[in-house]
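Tip: read the tokens left to right.
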């Protein structure tokens, strides 16, 4: 308190005693508190510490007693032999950790690859089958076309041959009517030959040469005289022989027969340079001219 507070009030019968020194009171309070804290800390330390037990052994040096002799060891009884202990099973090392997600992705990728390969193989097989079917179809069509062409050609050939045969038969009939008409009218071969135009020598030589090349006579050619066989040949405009008549015999029947066979074998006969033929012609075949 200040000095004004210690001064006596005017007109008061009491006087307030003066206030002690402030610093001294503070120091005293601090000391008391410090002593209290020290006392508390010491009490806590004394309660936490445990007393140490001390053991002491007292030896009496005046009295000594010998230690008793230990008894002999007893023979050990044989123990029953026990079964050998099983060998410990070696634990396999744990498998390394596998990334399940990676394995799953790998399996899906492999499955997708196999599926694509299967689709590709099926597509390839389908393409090959289609190509094979087209080739077989084309081969069948070509074969059918070839067979049709062959059939048409055969039919056309048969038709042509039939037409030619009909024309040949017609010419043969006309020629036969001409020959029979000439005979019926009393005409002779000599007369017809005398009134007919002169025959081309080259044409006649080619005709006789072809017939002689087909004569197959195996008899002897060393005969007296000059045996000759003369035949009249009737032919169509195509050169086909339709009739053969012996006009004169050579006197050797075997030679006559060989000449007649050669004439039939030589049909059709050669034509002239202009493509025509002599409808009726007499040919002379001399035995001495045979090769």
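Filled-in amino acids:
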């Amino acid at each position: 308190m200040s000095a004004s507070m210690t001064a006596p009030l005017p007109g008061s019968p009491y006087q307030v005693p003066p206030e002690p020194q402030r610093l001294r009171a503070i120091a005293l309070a601090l000391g008391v508190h410090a002593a209290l804290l020290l006392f508390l800390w010491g009490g806590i330390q004394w309660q936490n510490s445990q007393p140490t037990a001390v053991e002491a052994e007292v030896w009496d040096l005046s009295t000594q007693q010998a230690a008793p002799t230990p008894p002999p060891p007893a023979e050990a009884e044989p123990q029953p032999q026990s079964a050998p202990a099983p060998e410990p099973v070696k634990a396999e090392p744990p498998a390394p950790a596998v990334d399940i997600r990676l394995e799953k992705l790998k399996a899906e990728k492999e499955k997708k690859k196999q599926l694509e390969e299967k689709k590709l193989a099926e597509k390839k097989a389908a393409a090959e089958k289609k190509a094979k079917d087209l080739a077989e179809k084309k081969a069948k069509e070509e074969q059918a076309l070839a067979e049709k062409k062959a059939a048409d050609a055969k039919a056309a050939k048969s038709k042509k041959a039939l037409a030619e045969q009909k024309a040949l038969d017609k010419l043969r009939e006309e020629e036969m009517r001409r020959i029979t008409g000439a005979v019926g009218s009393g005409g002779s071969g000599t007369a017809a030959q005398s009134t007919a135009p002169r025959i081309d020598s080259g044409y006649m030589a080619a005709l006789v040469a072809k017939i002689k090349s087909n004569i197959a006579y195996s008899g002897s050619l060393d005969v007296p005289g000059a045996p000759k066989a003369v035949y009249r040949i009737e032919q169509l405009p195509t050169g086909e022989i339709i009739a053969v008549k012996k006009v004169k015999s050579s006197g050797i029947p075997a030679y006559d027969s060989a000449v007649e066979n050669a004439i039939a074998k030589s049909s059709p006969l050669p034509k002239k340079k202009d493509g025509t033929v002599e409808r009726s012609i007499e040919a002379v075949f001399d035995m001495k001219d045979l090769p």
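Helices lie at 3-6, 22-48, 100-184, 189-195, 201-213, 253-265. The first helix runs from residue 3 to 6.
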